[in-house]
Amino acid sequence: MYRKFVAEGDKVVQEFLNLGWTCDLLCAQHPEKYSNAIPVDVIIMKQITHFSTPSPVLAVFDLPQPSDLRLESVTLVLDGIRDPGNLGTIIRLCDWFGLSQLICSTDTVDCFNSKTVQASMGSLARVACHYIEDLPKFLSSQHQPIFGADLKGKSLYSFSFPKEGIYVFGSESHGLTKAMKAIINTQITIPNFRKDRGPESLNVATASAIFLSELFRAR
Amino acid sequence: MYRKFVAEGDKVVQEFLNLGWTCDLLCAQHPEKYSNAIPVDVIIMKQITHFSTPSPVLAVFDLPQPSDLRLESVTLVLDGIRDPGNLGTIIRLCDWFGLSQLICSTDTVDCFNSKTVQASMGSLARVACHYIEDLPKFLSSQHQPIFGADLKGKSLYSFSFPKEGIYVFGSESHGLTKAMKAIINTQITIPNFRKDRGPESLNVATASAIFLSELFRAR
To answer: What is the ipTM for the molecules in this complex?
Structure first.
């Protein structure tokens, strides 16, 4: 285990540097923009990038030391999210709404996946992702009400949310698991405004956005 | 110009078939699920798919005939959106909130891009995307108030929106253009809840989700 991860792109790399994350290696097409950068041309960058378009800068950082998990007044939980872009987008959303952590099941995609790092646009430097082995067991021991985002449930817009709560989002293809539903206190749904036969669901990142907006709009 | 597009995946292909879109060719790994399907194995599918993971089914459809554009009470406008996944996600959102159309600048990514079709999860079959040449000119002739999503502006949560309105979202990297800002009546912002130095912006699809939710929650 090297315990390293790769970040690409000016904005993303800069964010980790600004917050003092340990950088082991930094390759840049414009090395003058960074201290201790290894100059690389676009041909080399095409060979080392994780993306189809080569990045202007690619850096290797040390993984952070595990941090303590203490629930905030709003805690998002992701159970089985597989798409790295979705995870990165949700990390960016958490950051926007002032959350410092995110709880993930161990079968959720790695938050240090290159695509997740990219989609988080640097917010991963401020939002700690905690991967928990037995999520239902852990959550039910937390003494906070547990809400699940589901296609059937009480309307998000008419429910009166308590000051503290845990909000669980299931996987892109299967939603909430049976084990998770068993420990959820209330299932909440985003009403579908199309009266005729419409889409079956929303993307999990946009659903999280709508939940967070609704939870914070009144604060 | 062949005027065709490719859709992949069971759910997406089925949605276009159900709504009667003309299918020219359908290749499936399980052809018994479709009528007139050409059986293909995973090796062939790997060669014809647009994605890194081969789809169970790939179909070629005729592009639709251009439809009339008549503004609805809420109209979303995308100016220079480059990411096909973002566009597809926004189409799926429009569908969820009951909008039948979306207006795009001509430099917005093609809505029939394979990744857009995929991300829209079939909602593209119900939401017509209209590409308009000179967007500022067109919008300013529409006799509806024009709102722009921007990092500086009135708070989304305290603004009282009129019954009818046009909502413009700028590009992922540059936001609203000068020409667009010149015709926008009011700039609206999603408040950033992080008090210290936080993320600079939200992903355009999640920002659209938050806007649509806020516009429809009271209806």
So the answer is: 0.94
- Length of chain B counted residue by residue: 219
CATH topology classification for B4-62: 60s Ribosomal Protein L30; Chain: A; (3.30.1330)
By the 10 Å C-beta count (0-12 exposed, 13-18 middle, 19+ buried), B53 is classed as exposed
Whether B209 and chain A come into contact, CB under 8 Å, resolves to yes
Structure tokens at B128: 């017509």
Residue-by-residue pLDDT tens, chain A, 219 positions: 899 999 999 999 999 999 999 999 999 999 999 999 999 999 999 999 999 889 999 999 999 998 999 899 999 999 999 999 999 999 999 999 999 999 999 999 999 999 999 999 999 999 999 999 999 999 999 999 999 999 999 999 999 999 999 999 999 989 999 999 999 999 999 999 987 777 889 999 999 999 999 999 987
Which CATH number is B74-216's, of 3.40.50.300, 3.40.50.2000, 3.65.10.10, 3.40.1280.10?
A: 3.40.1280.10
Going from the C-alpha of A214 to that of each of A156, A158, A176, B209, B217, the distances in angstroms are: 8, 10, 20, 11, 9
Q: Which residues on chain A are in Cβ contact (under 8 Å) with B95? A: 194, 198-199
- Chain centroid offset of residue B114 CA: 13
Cross-chain Cβ contact A92/B216 below 8 Å: no
Q: Where are the domains of chain A?
A: 4-62, 74-216
Does residue B217 contact residue B181 with C-beta atoms inside 8 Å? no
Strands, E, within chain B: which ranges? 4-8, 23-28, 38-39, 57-62, 74-78, 101-105, 128-132, 146-155, 165-169, 186-189
Model-wide pTM > 0.80? yes
Can you tell me the distance from the alpha carbon of A179 to that of B28, in angstroms, rounded to the nearest whole number?
34
**Chain B: closest CA distance from residue A132 (Å):** 25
Q: Cα distance from A27 to chain B (closest Cα, Å)?
A: 23
| CA distance linking residue A75 with residue A2, whole number of Å | 30
